[in-house]
Amino acid sequence: TTTVTGRVESSATLATVASSLSSSSSAANICYDSLSSNRRFSPSRPSPSHNGKFAIVRIFFLFVYIICMIAGGLLFGKSKYHRNLNSSNNVRDDTSNMRHDIVEHFKPEKRTIVLTPPPLYLDSRNDIDRRTSNLRASLLGLGRRHRHGDTNNDKPAPLRWAVLGAGRIAHDFTSALVSSGCTVTAVAAMHNYNGEKHLSALYRAESFAKTFSIPNYYGTYEELAQDKNVDIVYVATTNQNHLNPTLLMLQSGKNVLVEKPTAVTYEEAKLMYDEAHKRGLFLMTNHWTRFFPLVKYLRTTFLELQSSPMDAVSAASETTPSFLSVRRWKSHPSHPRHYNLGKVLAMHGDFGFPAALDPSDRFLNRTLGGGVTLDVGCYLVELALLAAYDHHQSGNTDDAAIVGGKRRRKLSSNELQPDQVTATGHGMYSGLEFPVDVESSFSLRWGGKNYGIWNGECDVDTNGGDTTATSLSSANRRGCHLAPSSRQALSGDSESAFGDEFTMLASFQASFRRPSTFEVEYVFENGRVVLHGPGNCPNEMTIYEHEPLLKRETTASFKLATVDLSPFGRSNYPRAEGFIYVIDRIEECMAKKGIPGLSDDSSMRGSGCLELEENSIEEQLATVEITERVLKEMNYFS
């Protein structure tokens, strides 16, 4: 092989070099290829015509190869996808099963029970014919009245009712009275209402009497007070006008059931109850919420601190449920249910409805005792007091007295009053401002005394200063260090006298300009109880039990009394048939214990039915006082 190096500078030189290499065709080919076109040409390579045929074949095989690769890839990928999918589904199924197990583990046990309340006294007292005959006899003045010590009269004659007022609430209450077979002998309409004359009041009383077939009607309260055929008067006037009519009826020797609120101020309410106590007569505020079977069941089952776990159906079927003592209940085979919610800690409620935008209506009229707190806010205060009262009654009962067959302590006002009341409100409604609370929000706090949160300082001198049981117990609860002598003094019965201090936070809202659910919620240590609306006349509640998570959810409901009010027109308030529960308890108490004030014997004064255990006098006065504190916080009286 000859290697040519160097640089070709002319065509002559190029020819000389070419001829010298002609003996070697491979070298010539290489030189020619390198010098002319820089292309390597092999004599064995096919001609261009052959290249075209082979190119087509190559393209064909390439195309087949690509198709095969694609097909194989699809088949392989699909198989792999299904394998991955199956694996993913397995993982998903495992996760779903695990999640289902977790949900099922924490999912509450749900149940719904319908409870039957005890039978009403009025249903079992007499048949309808006997009631009709007694009514006819009493109207004719022929019926004998049951007096204390009268042994010749085996069965008392019906209690004679009178209605003072002819408004909306009087209509609904009288409908329940007449529909349940009670005796209503007289009605008196409000006089001097917005300047109306006596003739107009008499006309309204007459119209009311015709609706309910009441034999006597009066245009003044004084005429009703002189009626000798009246045992008890239902006062259904507007809020600001409860004091004078109530005092007038009590001074005339008549028992009184006054519509809520008892009075606008605590001072007025105290005058009313002092007068009733002085004359030995029955006086009670129509807090009808307390008499509903569901509320009785709530108190005996959940609010009493010492109550044992009891069965729902057994508790509901008791004819005389206890509110003030520990009772053991037999479990029901069909509906075994035991609750252990602990002590009540908090409470929430919201009562509201859009009132008529009418300044002359009592809702928005200041002179008629208007305002949402006096109208529906007092219901919320009353429901909060249920917890406070039952807590104290379930505590130490060493100093308790037997009242109405039950052991009950005489509570002071300080025991029921909250340690702090905060409230705010306004009178704006649809761009107008009214001199009443159209919307109110208030909270009540039991516990913490007047300071709320302890500042961490021990303000009790335990080394010879203040060593009373009260101060020592307060220091002990606060975690202060006590001297040995102080601990010894506190280790006796003085410590147990305090018991567990009642602590509860209650927050409420009330409104005249918006609707609400009217629900009330009690929050306990291990659960909560929701009274479904309307909460002022409930017949259904849901119990949520936590241990510590939600474990059980029970909806309990009571069948309301079957009282037909339709013959007297449409009711003005929801569940007006619930008034029968108040009426029934008063009728039963008067029949068993006697009618106060009926006997002319002065030695019998103060005997008979003076108070119902469901609605104690202490609670009635406390409701008025707390409501007044709320109104003062909102500057209602300024």
Plain-language structure description:
The protein has 638 residues and is of the alpha/beta class. The chain is 39% helix and 16% strand. It contains 19 helices and 19 strands. It has helices at 11-20, 25-37, 48-106, 121-125, 128-139, 168-179, 198-212, 221-225, 243-251, 266-279, 293-303, 312-317, 372-393, 413-416, 469-477, 484-490, 493-496, 579-593, 617-633, and strands at 109-115, 160-164, 183-188, 216-218, 232-235, 255-258, 283-285, 344-352, 401-403, 406-408, 420-426, 428-429, 432-433, 439-446, 504-511, 520-524, 527-531, 540-546, 550-558. The strands form 4 sheets. The chain has a 9-stranded mixed β-sheet with strand order 1-19-18-17-16-8-15-14-11. The chain has a 6-stranded parallel β-sheet with strand order 4-3-2-5-6-7, sandwiched between helices. The longest helix has 59 residues, at 48-106. The radius of gyration is 45 Å and the shape is elongated.
